């Protein structure tokens, strides 16, 4: 009888252990699909820089999900949940804001996400970074605001440094071709320097909200690269495709045919298409529709040399709007033969 109970106890213990392993594995698989990113490093950042990262949350459970609470292990990071309720198949975000104005040095935090529906689980997300005490961005990011597509806009901030006498900014680089960063030193002392950092959003920036960063490169050997956040929204009543028209090398008065797709929110008619220094022709029947697919004949009239000019499309009617695409080309000058 004793042997029977001993074997039964072992069987029950084994079954409980197996069930625990299966449950743990299922939970792990579930949280991995809901939280595909569970860690992020901010790297080296400046004091007062606007430093944030949005952890995506995908509700793949097939049921509505409710996040009960989110807590941070360190005051260096503030968690901001986009919504507590995420319907089945929908997406939310958990924004981790690094508190660079009030903390210094190497910092990190664990964000514990407590989910109580449709299943209970706790998910741990980790962030870390190093906040430099010798550099300050003011303001903490370049926020461009809202701009019209086809137009250029410049945003600026200042970088204040205190420390080495030979410290300097040597370069700035962007991840996007349509973001053009520049810098200039505006003040220097024995142990301090001030730079003005500018970021231009070019005319060929795509429509919609953007949030990116440029890298400020310094001559600091230990921590040479510092990110600076850039954000804004590009809006347009018309969408032109392609937005950038690259014609390559063109001879004087050579005719080029370019196909354009012009899309509007509401039906519209095209009034004109113009480009300074270029002759532009297209078949215009005055029809109003949301999508126009047209072939435009272009040839350089007075344009010569390197060209980067806007192709301006204007709609007809009282509420006319304009949109711009960017035309680039190298127009060869006409050669004149000389008889000897």
TrEMBL record:
<keyword id="KW-0732">Signal</keyword>
<dbReference type="InterPro" id="IPR013783">
    <property type="entry name" value="Ig-like_fold"/>
</dbReference>
<dbReference type="Pfam" id="PF07610">
    <property type="entry name" value="DUF1573"/>
</dbReference>
<feature type="signal peptide">
    <location>
        <begin position="1"/>
        <end position="28"/>
    </location>
</feature>
<dbReference type="InterPro" id="IPR011467">
    <property type="entry name" value="DUF1573"/>
</dbReference>
<protein>
    <recommendedName>
        <fullName>DUF1573 domain-containing protein</fullName>
    </recommendedName>
</protein>
């Amino acid at each position: 009888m004793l042997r029977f109970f001993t074997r039964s106890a072992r069987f029950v213990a084994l079954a409980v252990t197996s069930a625990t392993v299966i449950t743990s594995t299922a939970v792990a698989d579930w949280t991995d699909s809901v939280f595909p990113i569970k860690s992020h490093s901010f790297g080296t950042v400046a004091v007062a820089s606007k430093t944030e990262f949005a952890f995506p949350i995908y509700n793949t459970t097939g049921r509505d999900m409710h996040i009960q609470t989110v807590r941070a292990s360190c005051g260096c990071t503030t968690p901001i949940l986009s919504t507590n309720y995420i319907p089945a198949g929908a997406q939310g975000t958990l924004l981790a804001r690094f508190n660079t104005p009030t903390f210094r040095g190497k910092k990190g935090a664990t964000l514990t996400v407590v989910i109580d529906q449709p299943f209970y689980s706790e998910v741990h997300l980790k962030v870390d970074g190093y906040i430099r005490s010798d550099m300050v961005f003011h303001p903490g990011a370049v926020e461009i605001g809202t701009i019209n597509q086809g137009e250029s806009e410049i945003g600026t901030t200042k970088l204040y440094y205190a420390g080495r006498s030979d410290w300097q900014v040597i370069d700035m680089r962007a991840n996007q071709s349509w973001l053009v960063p520049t810098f200039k030193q505006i003040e220097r002392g024995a142990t301090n320097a001030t730079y003005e950092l500018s970021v231009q959003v070019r005319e060929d920036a795509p429509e919609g909200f953007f949030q990116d960063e440029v890298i400020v490169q310094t001559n600091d050997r230990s921590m040479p690269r510092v990110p600076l956040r850039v954000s804004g929204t590009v809006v347009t009543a018309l969408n032109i495709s392609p937005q950038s028209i690259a014609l390559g090398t063109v001879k004087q008065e050579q005719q080029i045919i370019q196909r354009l797709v012009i899309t509007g929110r509401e039906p519209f008619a095209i009034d004109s298409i113009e480009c300074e220094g270029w002759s532009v022709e297209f078949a215009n029947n005055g029809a109003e529709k949301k999508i126009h697919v047209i072939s435009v004949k272009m040839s350089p009239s007075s344009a010569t040399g390197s060209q980067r000019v806007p192709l301006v499309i204007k709609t007809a009617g009282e509420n006319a709007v304009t949109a711009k695409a960017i035309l680039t080309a190298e127009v060869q000058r006409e050669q004149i033969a000389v008889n000897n």
